[in-house]
Amino acid sequence: MAFYGGISFLQCLFSLGIIFILFPLSREQMTTADELDAICEEASITTCDACIRADPRCSWCVQGRLGAKIKRCRAATKQTDCALGQEQNPRNVFNKTENREFSAIGTDITQAVVQLRPQKIDLELRKGAPIKFNITYRKVSDYPVDLYYVMDLSHSMTDDLVVLQKLGTTLANDIRNNVTQNIQLGFGTFVDKVMMPFTSTVPEQLKNPCVKNPGGGDQCAPPFGFRHQQSISSDLDKFRTAVESTKISGNIDSPEGGFDALMQIAVCSKDIGWRDEATHLVVFTTDASFHMALDGKLAAILEMNDLKCHLTAGANKYLNPSDIVYSKSKELDYPSIGQLRHVFSEYKIQPIFAVTGDVLPLYEGLKELIPNSYVDQLASDSSNIIDIIKDAYNNLKGKLEMNYNNKPPNVDLKYRVLCPSEPDWKLQSLRCDNITIGSEVVYEFEITATSCPPDGVTYPPMTFTSSSLQESVTINFGFKCSCDCTNQPIQNSPQCNTNGSLVCGICSCYSPHEGAQCQCTRESDDVSLIDKCKKGGPQSNDEICEGNGICECGTCNCDEGYSENFCQCSNKGCPKNDKGLCGGPVRGTCHNCGGDGRCICMDGWTLHPTLGTCSCNINFCKVNATDVKNCTGNGECACDRCRCDDPLIWSGEFCETCIHPSCKEVQPECQGSAVRQCAECVHTARRNRKNADETCKETCGNLQYLAVAEFPACGSCGTDENCARICDDIDQDIVTPRDCLSPLTSECDIKFKVVWKRSTNDYHLLVKEFDKNSDCRDPINPLLYVLPIVAGIVLIGLIALAVWKVYQTMRDKKEWENFEREMKQSRWTKDINPVFVNPSAKFENPSYGGDM
Fold first, then answer.
1. Residue 751 in contact with residue 775, Cβ under 8 Å?
2. Integrin beta subunit cytoplasmic domain: which residues (predicted)?
3. 3-class SS of residue 265
4. Cα–chain center distance at 191
5. Among 251, 364, 547, 573, which is 20 to 30 Å from 469 by CA?
6. Mind listing the pLDDT tens digit for each residue in 97-127?
7. Which long-range contacts (CB under 8 A, 24 or more apart) does 29-37 make?
8. What is the band of 24 on the pLDDT scale with cuts at 50, 70, 90?
9. Any residues with CB less than 8 A from the CB of 794 and at least 6 apart, and which?
10. How many helices (H) and strands (E) does the chain have?
11. Cα–Cα distance, 278 to 258 (Å, whole number)
C-alpha cells in the first residue's frame, strides 16, 4: 500500500488498530542497481555492522573462505549464493506491547476508558528502513469538565466585574445548564507584577492603586500578580462567594500579567484542583494585551520562568494573610508562548480567551500557536460570557488535535490523518474537527531511523497524546545497528590460527597478530601491518591497497588488472576511441593511477590534447612518410591533422591547396603571357570550329576557361539564368574582373576576362567567341585623314593672318603715339612787330624813399 494511496484497504483493517509495512521504497528513494552495488560493495565496509548501516537493502554473508577477496556485503537481492542461515539482513521489528480494546460507547468516563489503541508500541529500527503503522482514536463519551475562570482585575475591567458579581450563582447555574451538568468551577484573578514600570510602587498606591483617580478615588484592592481565590469544586455557592468578594484593582501600563496567571493555573494542579479524568478548561477574560518573556527585563528581572508552582498564602503583605498568590512574581520573568504551549500540553489544559474587540486580532494569532485553544470576542461588560463558554465547549469537545513529545533526534517522522467528517487523508496534520461520539480518527505514521545513536545512548519514549485527552500512546525506540553474529564471536578460532576470534565470517585478531587469518605478526606496536598497505601512510584515511587488493603482512597483493605497490594503478578507466582503450594496443597502454586515467603512448604516438588517447602522430601531417616538411610547409601539425598557417590562403588535408590569388602561379594581368596565350588558343580553336579542350590542353595547362558568346553583365542579369549562374560563381571581392584585348589582325581583337571562381578557389578565363561585328574594326575612310589636314592648314593660315594683323595694328599704334609725343615737345621762336609801340611807360623818382 502506497503512503498516499487509497483508504479502502485501510478501512477494512481499522478494527486491528494498526497497519505496518517494512521497507517501502518510493521512486525518489530508489537507486539503480549499479548505484546500490557501489554503496553495498564500498571497500571501506569491512564488518557486518558497517554493512547493514550502509543501506537497508545491503546484507552480509557470513560464509566464505578466509583470506579470499570475496564480497560479503552485497545487495540482498544478489545474496542468492549465500547459504541458508548465513545471511545477516536484520529487519524492522514492531510490537504492540499493550493493545486493549476500545471501551463501549457511552461508558462512564470516570472509569478507565480506552479511546486510543494501541496504548504501547515497541520499535526496533534499522537505519534507513521506514516502518508504517496506525494509531486509532474512537470517541466513546464526553469528559466531565473542570472550568477555571480567571479574570483581569485592572481598573478598566470594573464594569465586567460588576456584571459578573450580579450574575453570582446564576452564572454557575447557567454554565451548568448550557454547557454540561458534569462541571466543576474555580476562580482566580490577576493584575500584573507589583514593580515599576508595570505597577506603581508608591506606598499609598500599593494599598489602594485607585487613590489618585478623579473624584478622590475608589477603594480598590491592593495590586498583585495572580491570586487563586477558589479551587475547582462542585459547590456553586463557594464560586459565587469568591466572585462577589472580589474587588477591582489597578496598574500602570496597558499589557497585563495574565501569562503569569496561566502558568500557575496549569502547573499547580493540586492547588487548583484539576481532576485527572476531566477536561480542563481555563476561561481567560481581559481587555488588554499581555506581557511575555523578556518583558521582565524592564523591571530588572533576569531569571527566566521555571515552569513550577509558586502559590503561597500570605505572600502579599497588603492582602489578607489567607490569600493565595503567586509568590515568585517579582523574581521570575513572564513565561513565553512556547512555555505555555508546553505546560498546556503536559497538563491537558485548553484555554478559552474571551477578550474585547480591540485586542481580538492579537489573541487570534495566539490561538494559532497554542493547540486546542479558543478565542471569542467579549462584550465590553462581559454580558456574553455564558455564550462564549458554551460555544467554546461545543467547539473544543468536537475537536481533537494530537501532538507528540520526545521524538528521538535520529528519527524522521511523517504522518497523516483520516477524519470521520472528511473523505481524504490530510497530510502532515494531526487535527480533526466535528468528532462525534462513536466516530473514529485514524492516524498513520511513517518512521525512519536516519542514523544510529551513539554507543550507550538511549532515548526516552515518545508520547502521542492531546491536551484534550487524559490518555496517551507510548512509543519505545530501539535500533538495529549491529548484526546478531557480532555478539556471537568464536574465540581462538582455528580458522584464525587461534590468534583471533571469528566474527561474522572474518577474523578479529588479537594483538600483535594481523592478516585475514591472523597469520602475520606485527614487529612494532607503532605501525600496524595493515597500515603499511595505505598509500598515504599509516596516519592517512586511505583505503587498504586502494581497495584493489589484499594486504598480506604489510604487502599488497593486487587484484587482476591492478599494479604498483599499493595497487593504485589500473589497466582500465583510461580514455578510448573507436580503435580501443588509449587508441588501441599498438598505440598506447592504460596506466590509470589514482584515477588520473593516463595513457602511456608507444613510439611515434602522442596524447590527444582533449581526448587523452594516443591518437596523435606527426606522420599523419605528411603527404608521404618521406616528406621532410609537415603540412607541405604551409601549416603546423596539430596532433593528427594539419592546421594551415592562413586558412584563407591554404586548404586541404595537408595545406597543399592554394585557394587565394597570392599563392597562384598565374599572372592575372591582361599582358600575362600564360593568360593571353590560352585566350588566343581558345579563341582560334572556337573560331576554326575545333575542340578547344584538346587543342589548348598544353597551352592552357591547369588554367580553367569558358568560351562565352557575350561577357555576363553581372550587375543586371535579370531573368537570364545563364548570366546568373556564371555571376554567382564569380567573386569580385578577391579579384576585380578586367576586360582584356589581344590583337588578332589589324582590324580584329581577341576579347577575354580573368575572374576568380568561388567553386574552385582559382582563376577562371572567360573568352569571348569571335564576332566580326563586335570584335573587328571598319576600314579607314580617306576623308577622315584629308579633311582634318586641310582644315588644319586653313586654320593655321587664318591664325597666321590674324597674328600678322594684330602685329601691324600694334606697330602703327606705337608709331602714332611717338608722333604725338614729339609734337607736344616742339618749341617755336617768339618775335615782336617792329612797328609796334607800347602805350604805357614807367618812370622812377630817384629821391623817393619808398613812402607815399
1. yes
2. 805-851
3. helix
4. 52
5. 364
6. 999 999 887 666 666 788 999 999 999 999 9
7. 33/75, 36/75, 37/74, 37/75, 37/78
8. very low
9. none
10. 18, 45
11. 24
Residue identified by cell 461520539 is 437
Tell me the CA distances in angstroms from 476 to 125, 407, 448, 458, one per residue in order: 11, 10, 14, 10
Helix (H) or strand (E) holding 600: strand 598-601
Cell triple for 812: 602703327
| Residues making up the chain, counted from first to last | 852
Neighbours of 77 (CB within 10 A): 10
Answer whether 109's CB lies under 8 Å from 141's CB.
yes
Output the pLDDT for position 233.
Answer: 92
Q: Which three cell numbers stand for residue 187?
A: 476562580
The predicted model scores a pTM of 0.56
Q: Are 173 and 165 in contact (CB under 8 A)?
A: no
C-alpha 484/C-alpha 80 separation (Å) is 20
CA 510 to chain centre: 51
Put the strands of the sheet holding 738-743 in their side by side order.
704-708, 762-768, 749-757, 738-743
Encode pLDDT of 449-490 as tens digits. Answer: 999 999 889 999 999 998 888 889 999 999 999 999 998 899
Cβ partners under 8 Å of residue 606, min gap 6 = 614, 616, 617, 639
Q: Say whether the peptide bond before residue 130 is cis (omega within 30 degrees of 0).
A: no
Give CA–CA dist 336/829, Å, rounded: 156
Please report, in angstroms and rounded to a whole number, the separation of the first and last CA atoms in the chain.
174
3 pLDDT higher than 70: no
Helix (H) or strand (E) holding 750: strand 749-757
Q: How many CB atoms lie within 10 A of CB 500?
A: 25
Q: Note whether 16 and 442 are within 8 A (CB).
A: no
The residues that bridge with 87 in the sheet, in sequence order, are: 61
Nearest CA-CA partner of 54 in 67, 66, 45, 63: 45
Name every residue whose Cβ is closer than 8 Å to that of residue 322 and which is 6 or more positions away in sequence.
313, 314
Q: Which residues contact 230 (CB under 8 A, 6 or more apart)?
A: 185, 186, 187, 188, 238, 239, 241, 242
Indicate the helix (H) or strand (E) that contains 824. Answer: helix 783-824
The sign of the dihedral angle between the CA atoms of 572, 575, 579, 585 is negative
* 813-845 pLDDT, tens digit each: 888 988 888 888 766 556 677 777 778 877 777
Instruction: Kindly provide the b/e burial profile for residues 724-733, where b requires at least 16 CB atoms within 10 angstroms of the residue's own CB.
Output: eebbeebeee
Predicted pLDDT at 520 = 87
Sorted by sequence, the CB contacts under 8 Å of residue 509 that are 6+ apart come out as: 496, 499, 500, 515, 518
Which cell numbers hold the place of 103? Answer: 471501551
∠ CA 356-360-361, nearest 5°, is: 160
| Residue of 605, 607, 597, 604 lying closest to 575 (CA atoms) | 597
Residue 520 grid cell: 602475520
Instruction: Say how many CA atoms lie within 13 Å of 94 toward its Cβ.
Output: 18
Q: How many CB atoms lie within 10 A of CB 275?
A: 16
* H or E element that contains 426: strand 426-427
Give the C-alpha distances (Å, rounded to integers) separating 322 from 227, 309, 317, 372, 614.
11, 18, 10, 34, 101
Cell of 548: 584493489
Write out pLDDT tens, residues 299-337.
Answer: 999 999 999 999 999 899 889 999 999 999 999 999 999
DSSP state of 200: -
